[in-house]
Amino acid sequence: MDSDNAWLVNDAGGLDKINLATGRIERVIGKKETAVSLLWSVLQTRDGAVWMGHSGGLIRFDPATRALRHYPSGDGPGDTMRGAVRLLIQTRDGLLWSASYGSGIQARDESGKIIHQIHVDESKGLFLADPDQFALSPDGQLWLATAKGLLRWNDDTEKFVGIDGSPKDRVDAFSFLASDTLWVHRMGALEAFQWSGKQLSGIKKVGGDEGLPPVEVGSMLPDRSGNLWLTTTRGLLRYSALTQQFRMFGERDGLPSQEFDMQPALMTQQGIALVSTSNG
């Protein structure tokens, strides 16, 4: 993604580019080129390459030369772990991290070389194979949302570690509103924590009594006014920082569908949110 455009993938195996100013969508490559019927995730790394995750591995696409390189799932050198690659993120050190559903997490450099391969075991601190979200903390650390709370990657020990003060049950989504303020959603609760750099301390919690519906959340995005926007299977939910009230937006408000995918959404540098629904 650059300042003018963002990349989109779809369930027809295609890679599209959207102009953020005009909303115009251009098909860049299709199923004929990717040889994949369903793409799950997409990320442009800092070298300009576009990486796409699918049920059988990863694809690296060079927009300048239109060259494609496939990294299939398997046990060979450079192969991805088995399972759909649903999450992608690049950390400040240039590593591309990917999560393969049911198998684990990999990190590779921009050339595709695997640097870390993390299976589900205690030695690397990953107790469950299916994180719900990747995100970077304000100091650049990789954080995960999992079914047993939040984890972060420790570069010194090269393993995931638990975060003191984190919820211990499933975290659907989380977002840093400021360098020291973290919001977390788990079923039935939306919580704010203060982050000291070492541990979390709860400072606020809202739930059903305050109007939070009991729905699964795919993404949480803060806007410039401090409001939180949550994508759910029942619509787009806004929590107002000013009124401390919730409002659910649906098709009557102009959305193409009230059913949002559980894939993480994207907030651009311009403050434009890109989210996917069952109808586009």
Can you give the mean pLDDT? 92
Radius of gyration from the alpha-carbon trace, in angstroms: 19 Å
Tell me the series of helices and strands, N- to C-terminal.
EEEHEEEEEEEEEEEEEEEEEEEEEE
The tally of beta strands, per DSSP, is 25
Our estimate of the beta-strand percent is over 45%
Question: Oligomeric status of the shown chains?
Answer: single chain
Give the overall silhouette: globular
Biggest sheet architecture: 4 strands, antiparallel
Helical content class: under 10%
Write up what this structure looks like.
By secondary structure, this protein is an all-beta fold. The chain is 1% helix and 46% strand. The chain has one helix at residues 31-34; strands at 5-9, 15-19, 25-29, 39-44, 50-54, 57-62, 67-72, 85-90, 96-100, 104-108, 114-119, 133-136, 142-146, 149-154, 159-162, 173-178, 181-186, 189-195, 200-207, 217-222, 228-232, 235-239, 246-249, 266-267, 273-274. The strands form 7 sheets. The chain has a 4-stranded antiparallel beta sheet, with no helix packed on it. The longest helix has 4 residues, at 31-34. The chain is globular, with a radius of gyration of 19 Å. The two termini are 19 Å apart.
